[in-house]
Amino acid sequence: MADLKKSLGFFQLLALGVAGVIGSSWIYTNSAFFTKYGAGGMIFGLLLGTALAACVALAYSELTSLFPRAGGEVVYAYTILGRAFGFVTGWLLIGAYMSSTAFYVTAFGLLLGKFMPVMDQYPLYSIAGEAVTAPVLLAGVILTLLIFALNWFGVEVGGQVQVILFATMMVIGLALITVGLGAGSPSNFWPPYRPDQNAVADTLRFVVPGMTYMAGFGLVAVLAEDANLPPKKIASAVVLTVLTAGAFYSLVLLSSAWVLPWEQVAQMDLGTIDAFRVAGFPLLGWGAFAVAILGLLTSFLGLFIATSRIVVAMGRAGLLPASLAEVHAGSGVPRRALVFVATVTLALGWLGKGAVVWFLDTGGIYLGLVWILVVTAKYALPKKYPHLASKRRFNASWVPAVGALGAAAIIVLTLLPNTNMALVWPAEYIILAMWLIIGGILFAVSAKVPRDRALDALLGEYKETLDADRSSVTE
After folding, report:
1. pTM flag (> 0.70)
2. Does residue 63 sit in helix, strand or coil?
3. Distance, CA of 156 to CA of 164 (rounded, Å)
4. What's the burial of 473, exposed, middle or buried (CB within 10 Å: 0-12/13-18/19+)?
5. Quick one: 16-467 is in which CATH superfamily?
6. In the predicted model, what is the mean pLDDT of the chain?
7. 261: which DSSP letter?
8. How far is CA 72 from CA 62, 247, 269, 286, 382, in A?
């Protein structure tokens, strides 16, 4: 089975990874979070969430350095934990990532609608209390087809576009940070909590959503086979992705709480966007809006590419139809997997924001479970492949376990009713149950490919490292 074309350089890989983390809504919904948790609760909680995500990222780095192949987590889980865990990991990732890509179908038009009233006209239907209008749906379909076209002829095209968008977003973000911190005052931020708030409790409450903000750094591992880089450098990009995204989030949010009193920003409709406009920097207010648009575009592009690679890995292992793993000879692109991702994205995207948010919320649980599975694979590696474990370029010892505990906290708080992160009853619980049931059915009917053959397809040249390990266990 053909390998993917190695086209991505380090900066392209980093841009795709960071873009998979940085979204759009945070820059205009931070006013609501300031109200609920205080500026300190949101920013310090996000920093703690970043630290926990970085702990998990260390496990990703360790395994990516050994298995830099398409599908990332699917490869680790299948190789170390077995076929069933490989399927569970891939199915959870598809659910999480495609919930996001489907959300972007209507989110793009809705974001444009904040300054383009035409987007609210010509309603077609309403689902879950949210009207879907013709302009919003048309904008989303066009964007999806554009993302699809960017990847049809080679990942390097999408990678180059991603670098341009990413660099633009970073430049605007740097301008916001520089002006906000330079023209503002620390007295606008301090004290970072209202007198009636519990600083420790509100900070800890935001750690959970803070960790969900960092979800997506696994894109680097998923795209490892597309990278024309040594494994060690790919592994380093995983952790650097988390740290870069966390720093960007925190500093831009801090600038909006620095340029004006954060209590005033908390009363605004569009958070950072309004903060800079009111502070006398209308151009930067538009810059913040541009960051929201760019964050959506780059996130959509990164997740679209990554989802196709997860489908490829599952096809190689026989966990999905093998035809989905086929790579086009000329472009080195898995075109059938791209068609699959585009089709499902549009099929879910027409449901509109109200319904797709249900899928998006359950995606947090899926990603939390994947983090736990990756950390489990990291600790199971020495027992199953001691010879291979001795070749690790990174050995993160106990640190990833801390991140896994944080992921477990996300799952508990979203499943338990009456918590800040609880799923919406009954819709989101039904979606969660249905996704797991559909996955169980697909796994039951999937063709059981012999383990050696599946590992040959999953690992390619890296299969030799397993063959050298005498303790390799066959199923």
Report:
1. yes
2. helix
3. 12
4. exposed
5. Amino acid/polyamine transporter I (1.20.1740.10)
6. 91
7. T
8. 12, 25, 39, 37, 19
